Amino acid sequence: MLGRHRTSCLGMSFVCICSGAVAASETTLDLALILAVDVSSSMAQAEQSLQRSGFIEAFRSPVVHKTIARGALGRIAVAYVEWSGVDEQTVLVPWTVIDGTDAARTFASQLGHKPIQQAGMTSISGVIDFSMRLFCGSRGQAGAAGDRHLG
Q1: Alpha-carbon span 55 to 35, nearest angstrom
Q2: Count of other CB atoms within 10 angstroms of residue 39
Q3: Signal sequence: where (predicted)?
């Protein structure tokens, strides 16, 4: 049962990764990461709490801090999005540059202060479309491979 629970928890969140960074800013990054988390009615409150706690603890972790620092530039950008239906996506923590322990802990703290909510239906295509727009920023494109910038 525990193994099944762990597997289902892994399947609960959809993570969008983009090498480099995102459109409109001049901040060059090692990675732009959208943590897109399912909060549809198919998620039990205990599962949502476990998910949220895992993300918070990850950004408090010295292992994560060291891994980010070992990147070519030593900085990433992260946004935390909760989603359910086709038009039900909420950015809980907007794009945040993580370039050290303090920034990572601040991101974790911001996330920890947000209430856990539950929404209706489930539409992964809705969050994929939303995430692509979030990556594209105001210019409407993800940019060329290589040096991308945070939007």
Answers
A1: 9
A2: 25
A3: 1-24
**Of 6, 17, 105, 12, the residue nearest 62 (C-alpha):** 105
Q: Which two tokens stand for residue 45?
A: 């409150």
The confidence score (pLDDT) of residue 25 equals 52
Strands 76-83 and 89-98: antiparallel
Which residue's structure tokens are 């995430």? 131
d(CA 118, CA 84): 8
For domain 2-139, say whether CATH 3.40.50 is its number. Answer: yes
Give me the sign of the Cα torsion angle 146, 144, 149, 14: negative
In the chain, where are the structural domains located? Answer: 2-139
Q: Can you give the pTM of this predicted structure?
A: 0.75
Q: Which amino acid is present at 20?
A: G
